[in-house]
Amino acid sequence: DDLSTVIEIIRPIMENNDIPKTGQNAKFDMLVLKRHGIKVQGLVCDTMIAAHLLKPEARSYKLDNLSIEYLNYRMMPIEDLIGKGKNQISMTEVELDKAGIYAAEDADIAWQLTEVFQKQLQDSGLDHFFKKIELPLLSVLMDMEYQGTYVEKEMLEKMSLELGKKIENLSKEIIKEAGTEFNINSTQQLANILFDKLNLRKVKQRSTAESVLEALRNEHPLPGMILNYRKLNKLKNTYLDSLPPLVNTDTGRIHTTFGQTIASTGRLSSSNPNFQNIPIRTDEGREIRKSFKAQKEGWLIFSADYSQIELRIMAHLSQDPALIEAFNKNEDIHSRTASDVFGVGIKDLLPEMRRTAKIVNFGIMYGAGAFRLSQELGIPRSEAQVLIDTYFERYAGIREYMDRTIKQAEDQKYVETVLGRRRNIWNIDSENHIQREAAKRMAINMPIQGTAAEMIKLAMLDIHRTLINDGYNARMILQIHDELLFEAHAQEIDALQEMVSDKMVNAMPLTVPLVVDCGNGISWFEAH
Asked: Which of 259, 373, 378, 504 is most buried as measured by Cβ atoms within 10 A of its Cβ?
């Protein structure tokens, strides 16, 4: 009866909003307590999130490391309690006195770190951001993790079998094309076939990396077949075979973990499994989304996705007149860019021109130079440079924004988002050319990506509040980059769409209008 006794002792403390709480990775503990019917109230700090906000470039936010760095104190290693190797025991077998000291030390260190971090957050002007966005978001993410996502297991298993047959047939074709038996998964054996037997040119010595195979694709059928084989294999192993075992036997749903401390830009991450990485660009990748459904009869999946959010933020930050005008006129931005760069009317554009403009738009936003663009577009470097020069002639405001941001990074050694999240840029004046250029790209991109992350976080906070306060039955289940996914009864979809669109559009007003694309259906595939 220990568990129920402990729960009833701690319940009044945990659920009392007037008793402030702090912790390290508090979401994990709150989720465990929620599963035992305790709703934690009064969280004022999370040391892991605070540490990340203060130093987003740090390698680790483990409590042991934070304790050494900020308190100069080495904590008791867990191996002292449970041992290691084949003699390792579980925590439940540890004597109560020892376990008690270990647990008390954890709590004490988290409390001491809280006092350090609260002062540092105030001193660096990040206190408001921490309290307004990151801390309240923790409860939203906890609810989403608790809800989980329904994925039709049988459908994935069927897809896996079908893809397995496809891979098998492709393997036979590859062997036939190579003219000899070899292990397709062995990079060494593949290199022998490509460079010794077929005498293809060695792009990077004897590398068989994706970029090399892409470069050789037009010289022989085999590189393209290998790329396809790898793509299908990854799909099968990473998703079709790994998702079904993650279905919780009690809920019939998959409960991913959302992270606030993985991406230095402040973007949310998803792990075990990583739902953010489910491919959208390939037909096979999109097929996986057919298995993401609503669990209840009469319910649907609803998707709301920011349209071209990073380019809109670029327009806002750079105040470039041509970009702002294009968005205000609700023009297709890639067509507008293609028209400007190639000097052709929008009606006379070739599809290839729009595709090039799209790559240029995103490439420049991520700080790509002529070399990178030439690789992406498969054109000579000189042509890529002409494209970049023409682009900056037309969008001079973007060039000015980039120069201004790099100058700020050089002067202050950091850049920041619209709401003030910072990213330190230490290598901006490095003597190493590669490190310096990487730092410049980071400086340009972080305010854009970080602001996009803030926008969707603000929308999530507002939507979550409204779902509860206005008595919706619908629930928010996933956040994938710029998209939010919900499960809702068919009769609630219209009201949900109106509310969610409104909250997303008004989360953070910009110089240009925000657009949200919405859809619904029996699966994520149909909704998006």
From this structure: 504
